[in-house]
Structure formats: C-alpha cells, structure tokens
Amino acid sequence: YGPVATCLVQNGTLRIGDNTPYGSIGASSVVAVASGTAVEWSRSDTSQQTISNAVSGAGTIMFRGAGAMDLAGQYALTGDNSGFDGLWSLDGGKLTVTSVVHLGSAPVDIRTNGQLAVSGAPVITNMIIVTDGSGWRDTGLRLGAIRLEDNSSLS
Fold this sequence. Notes:
Largest sheet: 6 strands, parallel
Low-confidence stretches: none
Mean pLDDT: 86
Helix content: under 10%
Order of helices and strands: EEEEEEEEEEEEEEEEEE
Distance between the termini: 45 Å
Number of strands: 18
Number of helices: 0
C-alpha cells in the first residue's frame, strides 16, 4: 500500500483518533469533504499535531480535545486550504494558524474548551462563531476562545 492521493469523504464522518494519542492521515493526502459529511480529529496527546493536508469541500472539519486535560488536543494547520468553504469546528481543541490560506473561506465555530490561535501577523476575515466562550485550558487557566499573537488581527 502506498500513500493515498485523495481522501474523499462523501458519506458520514471520518474519525482520526478516538480521544487517544493515535490516528493520522498521510501528510501528502488531499482531504476532500462533501457537504453534509465530516472529518474529525480527536487526539488526546499533549503535543501539537501538524495537519499539512490540503483540505477542500463544503463539509465540516472538527478538532476535538479531551477537554478536561490541560494542553490536550492541539492542532496546527499548515496546508493550503483556500478551496475549503465548509465549517471548522473547535470542540475542546486548540487550532493554530499562521496564514489566511490555512482557513480558506470557511467560518470557524469555537465550542467548549476550544480556541483559535492566530500568529505570524495574518489578517483573518473568516466569520468566527463563539458557541461557548469558556476557552482553552492551559495549566489550569482559561486563555479565551480567540488568541491573537505577533500582530495578527481579525477583520
């Protein structure tokens, strides 16, 4: 078996991990998510998971974290996701982006214990929905649902 060129999700939800430190998609695979379907990363390890895949489509990409454990469920997007106009959902997971192409045009829904962290000075124009503003847990503290660093901004 070689690497998969495209991971096409046309029905249901593709789960990567099960609130454990295991599960991944090959970094070079394109992830295409049809409307009404989802891809869910659910990792419990405390190290940041880099998602370098290019994502496209109109479905939902969800990043989950353990929620009760500090620093669990950290993800960073590094791929060109300019073809994605679905929904990013952060439910107990922290998502870090450093470029506008990492989010495409999709809105970001920040839920319980979720956080969008923006660094590297991009201007983010995506719609941001804070469903639950309790924010990210980091060593017992709540750091908020949105974190802007390095002259990053929202527009």
